[in-house]
Amino acid sequence: MSAILAMVFLVMLVIGVPVAIALGGSSLLLVMAEDVQPHLVVVHRMISGVDSFPLLAIPFFIMAGSLMNSSGITARIYDFALALVGWLKGGLGHVNVVGSVIFAGMSGTAVADAGGLGNIEIKAMRDHGYDVDFAVGITGASSTIGPIIPPSLPMVIYGVMANASIGQLFAAGLIPGLLMAATMMVMVSWYAHVRGFHRDATFALSRLWYTSKRAFLPLMTPVLLIGGMTSGIFTPTEAAIAATAYALFLGMVVYRTLTWRGLIKVSMETTETTAIILLIVAGASIFGYLITITKITDNVAELVLSITSEPWAVLLMVNIFLLIVGCFMETIAAITILVPVLLPLMERIGVDPVHFGLIMVLNLMIGLLTPPVGMVLYILARVANISFERTTRACAPFLIPLLVTLGAVTYWPEMVLWLPTMIYR
């Protein structure tokens, strides 16, 4: 049964069947062929898979990021970041990273960062004489901070699949996200030293004050979300609704840069993206159920533990596996498929589910920068108007700080779990 399920699913993926259809279709074929469950169990499991309150956060986080981009709020964030760190050598590289950290507290997706803020950053770096490859590389790397710093769309999916606290997952991502930013800024400083990059702005308190006033209300978005969740005013799901309402208020009432036509466009894009994600979650729900009853999870755990029972070695093997999966599979699909398989193994070696959530999401964020399926690579290639191959080469050196952070997150669980423990445990 396990072999049939895996084989049918892989064949469907190879011939180009969408992931959601491959998940549900392979599950349905197994149920019909083996008659292990009533056929209606497929429908019931798919419905129960998306009948989840935390999943309501998905459309609202997607819409909040799109509204920020459509309302011109990203430009205000960029100007503030320029005044804050543009005076450093390689200034626009640092601005790129700091801007992504700020935007990460609003959108929770790497694609929104790369497509919105990245468009402004790459153009500015080109105008200031930076090498296009450097501009594309640092933009791609910094965009992966988005799903690590709260709020985070992949964390919501992981929390639902792993039955883990989304609030704790959000809190666990803050310090690793800041570590990612720090390692990237170190690499930008190294590039600036080697290539002789100049300063792109002079530090002036007046300019910092002016840009901070212009960006004050957008900068309050992370404060609103994180403060509201930690103080218990609202849940992570309600935080997504608050973020959308706040972005809508800024775009239509305060700045008046968002038109009704733009709002309709954002709403339709959000509906389409949400439908795709929820269809994947529904398909993964029945797929994961069949994985459980066919004891694939137990077999995987026994196989890995027969090779080694050392936790550090098991974590290394899982990291390598996830990095390979990230090259070929979209983030949401990988999370929904692999959490039921890998989480029991992690629990066997004593890894906290919240800790493993950070490990998994960070691995799959690195996958956004690796061919052939790296979504961020395609977006940056279009934004910078260069080939996909050149974009891949440009982003390759910036995998170094991401891998350094991954090593720290994997083998320093106290760093990941300190904040969730302080707030929630």
Description:
With 425 residues, this protein is an all-alpha fold. The chain has one domain (2-424). Helices cover 79% and strands 0% of the residues. Helix 13 packs parallel to helix 16. The mean pLDDT is 84.
List the SSEs and their pairings.
Layout: H1 2-14, H2 19-34, H3 40-50, H4 57-70, H5 73-85, H6 91-104, H7 110-127, H8 132-143, H9 153-162, H10 166-195, H11 205-230, H12 236-254, H13 260-293, H14 296-307, H15 311-328, H16 331-348, H17 353-367, H18 375-384, H19 388-395, H20 399-411, H21 413-424
Summarize the structure.
The protein has helices spanning 2-14, 19-34, 40-50, 57-70, 73-85, 91-104, 110-127, 132-143, 153-162, 166-195, 205-230, 236-254, 260-293, 296-307, 311-328, 331-348, 353-367, 375-384, 388-395, 399-411, 413-424. By secondary structure, the chain is mostly helical.
Q: How would you state the average pLDDT, rounded?
A: 84
| Rg result | 22 Å
Proportion of residues in helical segments: over 70%
> Could you give the order of the helices and strands?
HHHHHHHHHHHHHHHHHHHHH
What's the total number of strands? Answer: 0
Number of helices: 21
Proportion of strand residues: under 5%
Give the distance, in angstroms, between the N- and C-terminal Cα atoms. 41 Å
